[in-house]
Design brief:
Number of helices: 2
Oligomer: single chain
Order of helices and strands: EEEHEEEHEEE
CATH superfamily: Nucleoside Triphosphate Pyrophosphohydrolase
Shape: globular
Structural class: mainly beta
Radius of gyration: 16 Å
CATH architecture: Alpha-Beta Complex
CATH topology: Nucleoside Triphosphate Pyrophosphohydrolase
């Protein structure tokens, strides 16, 4: 399965603002997303994350500034070559000023006013959680339109919890907040 990365530069601790990029062309055009892409041959996950952050947003960060916050699997049964595993990081320190690239137009958003309606549908399930300090492992299955999430399996670790609490939308014993997108 394709290995990919996503980086979300944040301001504040806890995060008050997050830098998103409006995708200008290609896969996901017209949607806001984090900065990332595929892991090239010979690269580590973190090397790829740092390279993509530089290429798409003009920000230079060190590996120590990457905080792993999620492992996401995206399944596209109607187009299996689109299926991917994504390693997600918050970026807590960097050099440079965000700049527009041929691929992305960066913009800062308060974490309580994310443009979820202009993002991939899955973002509502996990982006607010990682920005609130939770660690997320999730699998999203998309319908034949490649836009609609038809199934979600989600595990989270609350900010102070020592281990992952398993959950799934199909499990009737779930905590309420794990049954759908998190809103503020």
């Amino acid at each position: 399965m394709n290995q990919r990365t996503l980086c979300f530069p944040v301001r504040g601790n806890p995060a008050r603002e997050v830098l998103l990029g409006l995708k200008k062309a290609g896969f996901g055009a017209g949607k806001y997303a984090g900065f990332g892409g595929k892991v090239e041959a010979g690269e580590t996950i973190t090397t790829a994350a740092l390279r993509e952050l530089w290429e798409e947003a003009g920000l230079e960060a060190q590996e120590a500034a990457l905080r792993p916050v999620a492992h996401l699997t995206f399944l596209f049964p109607a187009r299996p070559t689109w299926s991917q595993e994504v390693h997600v990081f918050l970026v807590t320190a960097w050099e440079g000023t965000p700049r527009e690239s041929p691929e992305m137009r960066p913009a800062w958003f308060p974490v309580d006013r994310l443009p979820l309606a202009q993002m991939w549908q899955d973002g509502a399930y996990w982006l607010p959680r990682i920005l609130a300090g939770e660690w997320v492992r999730a699998t999203f299955t998309f319908g034949e339109d490649h836009e609609t999430v038809v199934h979600v399996s989600l595990e989270t670790t609350p900010p102070s919890a020592p281990s992952i609490a398993a959950s799934s939308r199909r499990d009737p014993g779930l905590r309420t907040k794990d049954r759908g997108p998190r809103t503020r």
